[in-house]
Amino acid sequence: MKRRDFVGLTGLATGALFLPSFPSLGSAVDPLRLLEPGLDVAQKKRLADVGLNAAKSAGASYADVRIGRYLNQSIFTREKQVQGISSTESFGFGIRVIANGTWGFASTNNVTDAGIAKAAQLAVQIAKANSKVQKEKVQLAPQKGYGEVSWKAPIQQNAFEVPIKDKVDLLLGVNAKALDLGVSFVNSILSQVNEQKYFASTDGSYIDQDIHRIYPSFGVTAIDRASGKFRSRQALSAPVGMGYEYLTPKAADKVAGPTGSDIIGYKNSYDMLEDVAAAAKQVKQKLTAKSVVPGKYDLVLDPHHLGLTIHESVGHPLELDRVLGYEANYAGTSFATLEWKAKGIPYGSKVVNIVADKVTPGTLGAVGYDDEGVKTKRWDLIKEGRLVDYEKIRDQAHVVGQKESDGCCYSQSWQDVQFQRMPNVSLQPGKTPLSVDELVRGVDKGIYIAGNGSFSIDQQRYNFQFGGQVFYAIEKGKITEMLEDVAYQANTQEFWNACAATCDERDFRFFGAFNDGKGQPSQSSAVSHGSSTTRFNGVNVINTARKIG
Amino acid sequence: MAILSKEDAQALLKKVLTYSTADECEASLRGRTTGNIRYARNSVSTAGAQDSVSLAVESRFGKRSGIATCNEFDDATLKRCVQRAEEIARLAPESPEYVPMLGPQTYLNPPSTATTQLTAATRAQAAADSMNLCAAKNLTAAGFLDGGTSFVAKRNSKGLEAYQQSTNTDFSVTVRTADGRGSGYAIADATDPAKLNAKGLTQRAVDKALSSVNARAIEPGKYTVILEPAALMAGDDLSLLGGLVFGMGAREADEGRSFLSKKGGGNRKGEKLFDERITIYSDPMNPEVPGNAFDGDGLPTKRQTWVEKGVVKNLFYSRFWAEKNKVPATAYPNGFIMAGGTQSTAELIKGTAKGILVTRLWYIREVDPQTLLFTGLTRDGTFYIENGQIKFPIKNLRFNESPIIMLNNIEAIGRPQRLAGCLIPPLKIRDFTFTSLSDAI
Fold first, then answer.
1. Of B91 and A241, more confident
2. In what order do the strands lie in the sheet with A378-383?
3. Where do the Metalloprotease TldD/E central domain residues begin and end (chain A) (predicted)?
4. Whether residue A119 has pLDDT greater than 90
């Protein structure tokens, strides 16, 4: 989204400039509206057929329609007050066609027979106009129609059914705890998403899906007024593909960081009050923590941190559209070209086994079918350090000699065209039993990093720099003290080849990226990344402290 | 239906307000009709058209506020929308940051619309011109052309009436050599699409791509750099100047958590923070970059100076924070202008003994909000300059630098150009900090 598009209709929109970004996809509605059912399946099928038939009549050789109802609710608070409650609904129709071997797309929120037919004709008209300057005709991997099917995310409690008062009480409770423990400022937020998507195509699929996501988060800030120094610590929660049950903490889902670190990680449920108490303590320690001495360190990265490194240095470079050059003008291309893969150069060490999936329950990527009607699956990307496959959709499979899509097609809403997006990409846990303390015990001079901070990587995914939330020095196998001003810089291949060991499945958990951006116009998608705490040897650490006048 | 005239929009909003029973009510309409084309590998990839209009109603009872919207405009739907906003307002908690809605305002009339429109056919032609130029030279083009018309209208029960229509077109292109060893980039935006020259811009990217082949590695460290406007400002991501100017919020500064916070309390308004040649302001009436006439609150925009001769003159004050601090609120602009000189980038190069020319910076993220330290990388054309001439292309570099430090290390300021709705000059900076090399091309 462009910054100038933010300058919206209401004061709330202007206020959002200073809040964590979230996609403003819909229109504001009464929260109760979020519980009302959308169109029934029979109505959606009838409308879909209007679009498919109109496209075929106008000359399309293929068409798919998506009738989408996208519900979002975000609650923002700071200290003792609610800053804003935004409940939005976005409903409309998007149609994608192939005419003369070229894609065309149009969308409308006028979901009537006439509106749909007009959009279908416009999509075909655009495809035909573009076909005149087209050099590569679209080749779709064959896809059998599934008939009328449905899929629902296996949630236990729809977050939209929880009264807003309860959610506000939770957030204000979190804030109160942080203030009691002496932080200067606290912001908290709860975002909830429900995608009610209907897909139909000329292949004969009519797919109805119900998808839920939730993301609780906070940030605490400590300020030393005398010196003017301030530090913050963000939540160690993950956005997940779950309902409100994520916010009911279970002891079995808590995983302790290494002894001496004061870090608790969370699996399938999150203890927001516990985490904010830890954050309040840690943020004050950050004000006086020792500034890191730059140099080479063995890094021990917790899953909440490593998830983002996986996202940027494995998830993105293996998107086949980047590899082929479709994202050259914006998100970039990839070092992991088809030629590079053919050389068999190791992506990582033997410890590195990375799997893509769109099926793990509770993850952000999990759906039954993607946004071009392909049933989802799980597949290997990197096996024992070797690149074996990419992430692809129907019009890309032929490029790598494959006959089917991986089911990675997604659009953020009915009004944007679907395209290839990242599936869940996860580092598999070690097969040999290894606890976090055992992992740390082997490190002579290192840094343990928890949580993700600043992140940046080049457009071909070679050179990256990552910060974190909390850093601890490791000396002679033990956590000794907290550090500050830490960021590490590495080259993707050197980094993954320096992967020395990863903890076993007891430590495995998912991190999530709630708003991953790609495409022009830019679209947002959500994706999870699993891993266990992992060690990387000899990584370059820089000191980020500077002085301004 | 997507673009309503001022009269039609205000007539509809007037009707909406008659349904209100709240203490205060504000109704806003926003619509747009846009089309885009995207190409890569010298072929069209995706293209689309979007058409939408929506109404938002904010109702208030005392300090309680509710917002509802709709995108159908029959009387029954409009009434239901107002009722819904009122229901939400009754359920909402009181806002401790309540400020009353604005009364009648006087707005400037920025020259924000053009009469020319792009169509599916003209978009395809522009893309074809760009692709054909590249294909003829065995280069690969990837580009994006996106444009259309939008409008915003507001009216409230206190007598505020506002309307603005705008047109905008964005074009960008990345050209790569067939062997992937060279890459160049060009970008522009315009109020009038007729002023965008896709072919000319593509030629610039072609030249950069061809001359960036066989890049040499240099040692990371502190260098004199010439940053072209695309290395300073971006419309779709964080940038060195965008991050600085749009980060000048008074509240964060007063609260002690901004680079503009003063040790011991308060903010740094009035302090000289930058080189005396730095002046940054907003001017909605500038014909090259016409701005929004009003912000989301309906506050009128005007010419507003943020930095003058290196001194921080103003910070962004929301209406609440302004009232609390007894200062005027600042309307949030959608762009800014950095004052510059008359030299072109080529002239800046001529006057440089040793340095680096940077076409574009990429993936910029904040590392430390305390010092506004940013990191990111050069991309699509980085060159070594010696004795006033470009000597050879160099490999891309990662930087770790703060725009505050950067704007104290000014060597020269060039002629401003429009970029992302702003006017941005190329800057020549000494001691710009590069921390590592990248293999990316």
1. A241
2. A386-387, A378-383, A354-357, A424-427
3. 161-247
4. yes
Strands (E), A264-422: 264-266, 290-291, 295-301, 354-357, 378-383, 386-387, 409-410, 419-420
Per residue in A55-109, pLDDT (tens digit) is 999 999 999 999 999 999 899 999 999 888 888 888 899 999 999 999 999 998 8
Task: Enumerate the residues of chain A whose CB falls inside 8 A of the CB of residue B127.
Answer: 130, 133
H or E element in which residue A11 lies:
helix A11-15
Q: A-contacting residues of B 233-252, CB under 8 Å?
A: 235-236, 242, 246, 249, 251-252
CB atoms < 10 A from the CB of B68, how many? 25
**Strands A205-224 and A254-256, sheet pairing:** unpaired
Q: At what angle do helices B75-91 and B6-18 cross, to 10 degrees?
A: 60
Burial of B6 (0-12, 13-18, 19+ CB in 10 A): middle
Q: Is residue A411 less than 8 Å (CB to CB) from chain B?
A: no
Domains of chain B, by residue range, sit at 6-207, 216-239+340-437
Output DSSP code: residue B267.
B
Taking CB atoms and an 8 Å limit, are A228 and B264 in contact across chains? Answer: yes
- What interface predicted TM-score (ipTM) does this complex get? 0.93
The partner residue sitting opposite A10, judged by closest CB among B28, B41, B368, is B28
- Mean local confidence (pLDDT), A266-292: 98
Whether chain B has a CB inside 8 Å of the CB on A163: the answer is no
Q: What is the mean pLDDT of chain B?
A: 95
Q: Is B176 in Cβ contact with A328 (below 8 Å)?
A: yes
Higher-confidence position of B390 and A136: B390
Q: Is the pLDDT of residue A319 over 50?
A: yes
> For A7-18, how does the pLDDT look when each residue is reduced to its tens digit (9 = 90+)?
222 333 222 322
Band of residue A25 on the pLDDT scale cut at 50, 70, 90: very low
Tell me how far apart the alpha carbons of residues A105 and A414 are, in angstroms, rounded to a whole number. Answer: 11
- Return the residue of A nearest to B403 by Cα: A548
What angle (nearest 5°) sits at the alpha carbon of residue B376, between those of residues B403 and A353?
155
Does B373 lie at the interface with A, CB-CB under 8 angstroms?
yes
- Rounded Cα gap, residues A365 and A362, in angstroms: 9
Residue A431 phi, psi dihedral angles, 5° rounding: -85, -20
Residue of A nearest to B90 (CA): A30
Task: Find the mean pLDDT for residues B57-72.
Answer: 90
A312 phi and psi, to 5 degrees?
-80, -35
List the beta bridge partners of residue B366. Answer: B374
Task: Tell me the chain A residues in contact with residue B44 when contact means C-beta distances shorter than 8 Å.
Answer: 102-103, 130-131, 133-134
Query: Which residues in chain B have Cβ-Cβ distances shorter than 8 Å to A29?
Result: 68-69, 84
- Computed on alpha carbons and rounded to an integer, the radius of gyration of chain A in Å comes to 24
**pLDDT tens for each residue of A150-194:** 999 999 999 999 998 899 999 999 999 999 999 999 999 999 999
Record: contact A105-B404, CB cut-off 8 A: no
Contact B42 A463 (CB under 8 A): no
Asked if A548's CB is within 8 angstroms of B259's CB, the reply is: yes
Pairing label, strands B354-368, B222-227: parallel
Instruction: Tell me the C-alpha distance between A473 and A510, whole Å.
Output: 24
Instruction: Work out the pLDDT band at A3, boundaries 50, 70, 90.
Output: very low
Count of C-beta atoms within a 10 Å radius of residue B152:
23
**A462 to B438: CB separation less than 8 angstroms, yes or no:** yes
HEC states along A47-83?
A: HHHHHHHHHHHHCCCEEEEEEEEEEEEEEEEECCEEE
Contact by Cβ (8 Å): A221, A189:
no
What is the rounded average pLDDT of the residues A290-299? 98
CB contact under 8 A, A223 and B256: yes
Query: Which helix (DSSP H) or strand (DSSP E) does residue B368 occupy?
Result: strand B354-368
